Amino acid sequence: MTQASAPGKAILFGEHAVVYDQPAIAVPLSDLRTTVIIRSIDVQPPSVHVVATDLDHSFWLHEMDDRDPLAYAIRLTLQATMPELQESFEISVSSKIPIASGLGSGAAASVAIIRALTSFFKVDLSDASISALAYRVEKLHHGTPSGIDNSTIAFEQALYYKRDQDPQPFSLGRPLQLVLGHCGVDSQTGAVVADVRDRWQASMEEYSAIFSQIGELVERGYDNLKAGDHKQVGILMNENHALLQRIGVSNQALDQLVARACTSGAYGAKLSGAGAGGFMIALVGTETRDSVARALQDAGARHILVVQVSG
Ligand code: PMV
Questions:
Q1: Which residues of 96-117 are buried (b: 16+ CB within 10 A; e: fewer)?
Q2: Which pLDDT tens digit goes with each residue over 152-196?
Q3: Which atom of ligand 1 is nearest to the CA of 17?
């Protein structure tokens, strides 16, 4: 039996603008993981069976085409490591990362599958190569991914990220305590990114100016995260949320949760990921963590997660 896992991720600053070449910052959520287990099975000819427990989805690889992201991740990895299948095995995928919520569940599944298969075949792939394979699957989910999800998840470190540049891992000055609240609406990253593209094309000057403002916030956020100044980080998160509202990717439920987090003691809060649904994140201190989580619950959050991001 071979087992591997990969974390979820949260974008602290810069989503959407990162698609337009601005920097962004994301952190891995190491307590929330997708786990993949591979077991040999006695089947001839050599075949691969896939079971995704949480998705209620199982299939034989040879019967599934590449539009299925799990099948595509497996096939890409087999091409890179073991083009000629010699034995049969079953791949089980299970996940604690809520799907369609902005926490990188798709990229985590790809990275965990790639890690499990390379370990099963005793092939060494660098984090950068794993990230590059996972990026190809991300492209299937939505046409123009920036690459921040697969990078943060494959490197499992806080990253300063800019499209088409090597990701820059960095150390947080202090661990982050985050409370995440789901607004009750699912979010499809590809559709939200495409809508932003349409609006950008219609109002290019306005949108480009907002993306640049987000880029400036990212730079300041980066300095303050490294310095461990969470009060400043919180203020910048609020400003980033306001700019995300202006590009039309927030909704009433997210805005309400963000406002409630701030009035109940968070340093700051914002939507995270594609938006138009999914989770918001609030940066809290140990002393405000419980009150913020309670306030989000009272405000009707569908799902609340309390996580620590170290290093
Ligand atoms: O919703 P998520 O977790 O897939 O995050 C999307 C982040 C975007 O910046 C909106 C898109 C991207 O590819 O960077």
A1: bbbebbbbbbbbbbbbbbbbbb
A2: 999 999 999 999 899 999 999 999 999 999 999 999 888 999 999
A3: 9
The rounded radius of gyration (Å) of the Cα atoms in the chain is: 20
**Closest by Cα among 283, 297, 44 to 177:** 283
- For ligand 1, residues with CB inside 6 Å are 11, 15-16, 18-19, 102, 104, 145-146, 148-149, 189, 193, 273-274
Ligand 1 pocket test, candidate residues 20, 182, 193, most atoms within 8 A of CB: 193
Å from CA of 90 to ligand 1 middle? 30
| DSSP codes of every residue in the chain | -EEEEEEEEEEEE-TTGGGGT--EEEEEEEEEEEEEEEEE---SS--EEEEEGGGTEEEEGGGS-TTSHHHHHHHHHHHHH-SS--S-EEEEEEESSPSSSSS-HHHHHHHHHHHHHHHHTT----HHHHHHHHHHHHHHHSSS--SHHHHHHHHTS-EEE-TTS--EE---SS-EEEEEEE-SS---HHHHHHHHHHHHHHSHHHHHHHHHHHHHHHHHHHHHHHHT-HHHHHHHHHHHHHHHHHTT---HHHHHHHHHHHHTT-SEEEE-SS-SSSEEEEEE-TTTHHHHHHHHHHTT-S-EEEEEE--
Distance, in Å, from the CA atom of 293 to the CA atom of 306, rounded to the nearest integer, reads 8
Q: 189: CA distance to ligand 1 center in Å? A: 6
Q: Which residues are within 8 A (CB) of 294 and not within 5 positions of it... i.e. 6 or more apart?
A: 264
pLDDT tens digit string along 109-154? Answer: 999 999 999 999 999 999 999 999 999 999 987 778 999 999 999 9
